[in-house]
Amino acid sequence: MKNPNRKIFRFCAVGLLAWLVAGFAPQRYPVIYMIGDSTMADKPIDHEKPERGWGQMLPGYLDARIVVDNHAMNGRSSRSFLDEGRWTPILEKLKPGDYVFIQFGHNDQKVNTKRYAAADGLYRENLKKYIDETRAKGGIPVLFTSIARRHFDEAGKLIDTHTGYTEAVFAVGKEMNVPVIDLNKATTDMILSVPQEESKKFFMWIEKETNPSIPNGREDNTHLNVYGGRVVAGMAADSIARRLPDLAPFVRKYDFVVARDGSGDFMTVQEAIDAVPDMRKGNRTTVYIRNGIYKEKLVLPASKQNVTFLGEDPEKTVLCYDDYASKKNRFGEAIGTSGSASFYVYGDGFVAENITFRNTAGPVGQAVAIFTEGDRLAFRNCRFLGFQDTLYTHGDKSRQYYKDCYIEGTVDFIFGWSTAVFDGCTIHAKRSGGYLTAASTSKDTKYGYVFLGCKLTADEGVENVYLGRPWRPYAKTVFIGCEMDGFIAPAGWHNWGKTSNEKTAYYAEYGNTGPGAAIGKRVKWDHILTAKEAAQYTVENVLSGPDGWQPLNDEFRPKDR
Known about the structure:
Blueprint: H1 5-24, E1 31-36, E2 51-52, H2 54-57, E3 67-70, H3 78-83, H4 88-93, E4 99-103, H5 122-136, E5 140-144, H6 165-176, E6 180-181, H7 183-192, E7 203-206, E8 218-225, H8 226-243, E9 256-258, H9 269-275, E10 285-289, E11 292-295, E12 298-300, E13 307-311, E14 317-321, H10 336-339, E15 343-345, E16 351-353, E17 356-359, E18 370-372, E19 377-380, E20 383-385, E21 391-393, E22 399-403, E23 406-409, E24 411-416, E25 419-423, E26 426-429, E27 435-439, E28 449-452, E29 455-458, E30 466-468, E31 476-480, E32 483-484, H11 501-504, E33 506-510, E34 527-528, H12 531-534, H13 539-543
Parallel strand pairs: 1-3, 1-4, 4-5, 5-6, 9-10, 10-13, 11-14, 12-15, 13-16, 14-17, 15-18, 16-19, 17-20, 18-21, 19-22, 20-23, 21-24, 22-25, 23-26, 24-27, 25-28, 26-29, 27-30, 28-31, 29-32, 31-33, 33-34
Antiparallel strand pairs: 2-8, 7-8
Helix pairs in contact: 5-6
């Protein structure tokens, strides 16, 4: 006899499987496709070329999960973009929920050309075609009016050169219930916000012999430079946040954007650092660094305070250099451990998220990835890559917080004077017989290094690695609730060849797990904390200091617009 419950069971199993697949399927975020003319288009950046389309700069105002696929092209109109077949491949890629940003008009005005489309005729019909075909694919069309030209009459009045076309965009938007973002008005206000002569700063006005890519100079009142492109993209982002509720959560406010592809304010990180106002104590300056390998020897001076670096992807946003201690300077002198750093952080209040800090010199002795001197420093989801002496926590009075970070090296690769909490981090050893830490805590400093809930891992075959050794006599290092693989040396700690260090250094453990956490063969001068003693090692207790600093509050969150 057939089991009557078999069919029900099969139905439930299929339903459960479908639910699980749906639950674990990666979330898809909308793609923004852009179609338009040169004022929106991506521009080449080789040879220091300064021209930018505002669409090229828009990604600098959006969360990295939103892809901007810019198909705008120099010299195109709503008509020629269709005639040349540029619309078809976009339609083929378009998926439900994707956006199409449409901005034509500059070239539709050109009478007696193959680009001409009358404002009250073909231009409107072309906009409707883009809208209908976008909606047919489940996409979301958005209309943009053309940006204003910097065209003044003899009396100094700004002339609207898009008469008829701006009105046509609004008419089509109203008729077809499509959002309209009025960049014509926004850029008109932008031009009029400063004196007439000063308004050149937004456009391609280049003096002779000031730019190698344009040796003869240029006087252009239509096309935007880097600064103008960023300003217009920012205004577009403001309008997107107001008019497009589904995109609003992805709009971000960054003070500066660094991008190797030219879509930011700067193409190097040091340029962005230099642009940060000195002694800006009351406000935070946020620098968004888009994916790329930035090989620069960086310095954040003490005058640059409360600076945030936000990377696009922790594995693809890489700040690196290749100095090492025995390398000679111009005078033939070894630059030393401190001189080898790829990045020097002297400014108080520095925050970094989603960035790799790396020294690429290789296994050549001391080669520091980052040298941290400032106070109230915080790092989240960052990677610190190197070999010997990777992370130099140099500041004696510095408090530092590392959350969900990855730190690797061979010998003493976390070292220095600072008080630092490593919260949920991965500490990875790359060579046998090394030391994870080499604290040099000052005698009067209450805490040194505190590792909370970290995971200690190693390359295959690595063994006999010590938790730490005292670079200075009063080194303090504590591991609490950490998972330790079997590569940890059974003794746990090393006295750096000085028995006197055993009386002054403070090394302690509590509640660690894994084969490397066994305490049976630990050195006698290791401290095994009680639950009460371990409870004092909270982020708040260790780092608050006299000013009550609380790094867990909100410092990592990018500013919404």
